[in-house]
Write a structure and sequence with these properties.
Layout lengths: L14 H16 L10 E8 L6 H7 L5 H14 L9 E6 L8 E2 L5 E7 L9 E8 L6 E5 L5 E5 L2 E3 L5 E3 L2 E3 L16 E6 L4 E6 L10 E5 L2 E6 L7 E2 L5 E4 L3 E8 L3
Parallel strand pairs: 1-2, 7-10
Antiparallel strand pairs: 1-4, 3-4, 5-6, 5-17, 7-11, 8-9, 11-12, 12-15, 13-14, 13-16, 16-17
């Protein structure tokens, strides 16, 4: 159990042990910015690769329901080592199948840390395609760009939210379709956002896309084990070839496209 820990660390690990190990890794990386170098840090992005059955442990370890708590702990480390992080620094946490190459991987953990600085905060641009493999949407394929707003996914084009306002689904699966897969897609199922700091598209579950309602499962080309989104707070970085199940059987595919 707890395959996220390997090498010198021996499991199983509980929430506290997991948190201590993650904090220790972040501390070691931040110490490299002692002496005022922290002023160049714009934010931290923590990536965690863990089996689905262990995800709840690491969600608790990073205070997923109270994101400011982890940020406060990291800020205390920065203060203790005179790292001088700017007031508006940001913290992000992503659960993914494969750790990104650009992030610093921990020696004994399947986690990685990307330190966003003034030098590497380049506003990258990208284009991607969403192809409908199963289910019936308004179009068979959608092109999305990094400069566009939120890409909402759900049943029907225009749906009324609980606050009385209406939400427009960019990728809409008509509710009156005879396709069986459409029945299990929620009106507010998921959305895709562009993350300019990491240069990637990310998919997030909406209220209708997490248990006990309908579900979202993602399978990458390099990992046969589907990854489930169980929280609306944590996004999943989309990679070329990712297949995403919405509900019971609706299936879409994410593809990166050339800008040319």
């Amino acid at each position: 159990m707890f395959e996220i820990f390997n090498g010198n660390l021996e499991g199983p690990m509980d929430v506290k042990g997991s948190r201590d190990a993650i904090i220790r890794f972040i501390k070691e990386e931040l110490q490299k910015a002692e002496g005022g170098e922290g002023r160049n840090i714009k934010g931290l992005h923590i990536y965690i690769a863990c089996p689905d059955e262990e995800k709840h442990v690491f969600e608790a370890a990073v205070y997923i329901e109270e994101p400011d708590r982890l940020k406060e702990e990291i800020q205390k480390i920065a203060d203790d080592f005179d790292i001088e992080l700017p007031e508006n620094w940001t913290l992000e946490v992503s659960f993914i199948n494969t750790l990104p190459a650009e992030a610093k991987k921990a020696k004994d953990l399947n986690i990685a840390l990307f330190v966003k600085t003034r030098q590497n905060l380049i506003k990258k641009e990208a284009k991607a395609g969403i192809r409908i493999l199963n289910g019936e949407a308004e179009h068979e394929e959608y092109i999305i760009n990094s400069g566009t707003d939120t890409i909402n996914i759900g049943r029907d084009k225009s749906v009324k939210r609980s606050d009385g306002f209406f939400r427009l689904n960019t990728i809409a699966f008509p509710g009156d379709s005879t396709n069986e897969a459409n029945k299990y897609i929620s009106r507010q199922h998921a959305h895709i956002l562009w993350n300019s700091n990491s240069g990637s598209f990310m998919i997030f579950a909406d209220e209708g896309g997490v248990p006990p309602q309908n579900k979202i499962k993602i399978k990458s080309l390099d990992n046969d084990t589907p990854f489930k989104l169980n929280s609306t707070q944590i996004g999943h970085v989309l990679r070329d070839g990712d297949q995403i199940i919405l509900g019971e059987s609706a299936l879409i595919e994410f593809r990166t496209l050339s800008e040319s």
